[in-house]
Specification:
about 350 residues; alpha/beta; Rossmann fold; 3 domains; 6-stranded antiparallel beta sheet; 12 helices; 11 strands; about 20% strand
Length: about 350
């Protein structure tokens, strides 16, 4: 989000006087543009406000009520930080609210300066950043390698998902209708995505214990299977099985059952001492610069499959490069990849 673009901030309070006081505090202390929507709690309705960037709750009611309110707000704005001003700020009460999805819990009876500082921190943490120039798998690995704590919003067409990272580990994921590992696998399979992040993790509750590398590989496998199923279905629909006099075993006599099975392609040997060693190493290095740490897995899997379908010769290396470009996805990275290979 551009710093000149107003943030949509929702303020929910118990009474009008409290709302007016906090509204004045926000206008005096926050330096960046803010579009403030102030409502009484009893008047607020789910989905009654625009896309939210940040939320402030100021209430003298008990933690149980505020927890329920946070749960409802999280359904509408799963990536927006929530600042709570409450009477009850004991360790146990604050922990309950943080586990429910609050970003921070402060004493509602704090001095105006302390409340203003908390609000300024909220607006700063709500600032959105964008990740561009890389595909989703590379972006996720960057977050893991840099041990980022953030909330990542992934948009693909009309689909939207949220990924929650804590110190570089994916701990939770949400999509419409799915949560946890199922949601993460679905999001990881999306193509042509738009990525936004905020530098905080909306939740501390861990529901995913599966390594990110496995999630990416599993998502790729499922995507490949779905593509193969569609291709197979299309081929079957168009296949001509011939008339009743044509045998399905046509050509069987031409098969030489004594022919030896071709030797399996040994990638490790080909990379070290084979005639393609230098070319394969150069392709692998270029791929690593394009997609990062998963390059080794992607290169190995696709090169072995390429060698099964085509004779592994220098003349056929162009086919391997085309296959790897499909894996890279991002057009700019594909151009850089081909340029480094002199293509």
């Amino acid at each position: 989000m551009d710093s000149s673009t107003p943030q949509n901030v929702l303020l929910l309070t118990d009474d009008e006087q409290q709302g007016q006081t906090l509204s004045q505090t926000i206008r005096r202390s926050v330096t960046r543009p803010v579009r403030l929507v102030a409502k009484l709690m009893d008047q607020w309705k789910h989905d009654s406000t625009p896309d939210l960037d940040a939320i402030i709750i100021a209430s003298h009611r008990g933690p149980r009520y505020i927890q329920q309110l946070i749960t409802a707000l999280n359904e509408q704005a799963p990536d927006a930080p929530i600042l709570v001003f409450s009477d009850e700020v004991s360790l146990s009460a604050s922990k309950e609210l943080l586990e429910a999805g609050a970003w921070k819990v402060l004493d509602i009876n704090s001095k105006a300066k302390e409340m203003a500082s908390g609000i300024c921190d909220l607006v700063e943490i709500a600032e959105k950043g964008h990740i561009s120039g890389v595909g989703l798998p590379v972006a996720l690995q960057m977050l893991e390698l840099e041990r980022k704590t953030c909330t990542l919003t992934v948009v693909s067409g009309d689909r939207k998902g949220i990924l929650f990272f804590k110190n570089g580990e994916l701990i939770q994921a949400h999509t419409q209708g799915k949560k946890g590992l199922d949601a993460a696998l679905e999001i990881a399979s999306w193509s042509e995505v738009h990525l936004e992040f905020r530098n905080f993790c909306k939740t501390n509750k861990r529901t995913i214990n599966t390594p990110l590398a496995f999630i990416l590989l599993e998502a790729t496998r499922k995507k490949d299977e779905e593509g193969a199923d569609l291709t197979s279905k299309g081929e079957l629909d168009e296949q001509d099985y011939g008339g009743p006099e044509e045998s399905f075993l046509k050509g069987l006599d031409d098969i030489d059952f004594d022919e030896k099975e071709p030797n399996k392609f040994d990638l490790d040997q080909a990379m070290t001492s084979g005639p393609l060693a230098e070319d394969l190493q150069r392709i692998k290095r270029a791929l690593a610069r394009a997609i990062g740490p998963i390059a080794n897995t992607v290169f190995r899997q696709n090169t072995i499959n390429w060698a099964k379908d085509a004779e592994p010769t220098r003349e056929n290396l162009g086919q391997l490069i085309d296959i790897l470009c499909i894996e890279i996805e991002d057009e700019d990275l594909i151009k850089d990849f081909r340029k480094e290979l002199g293509l």
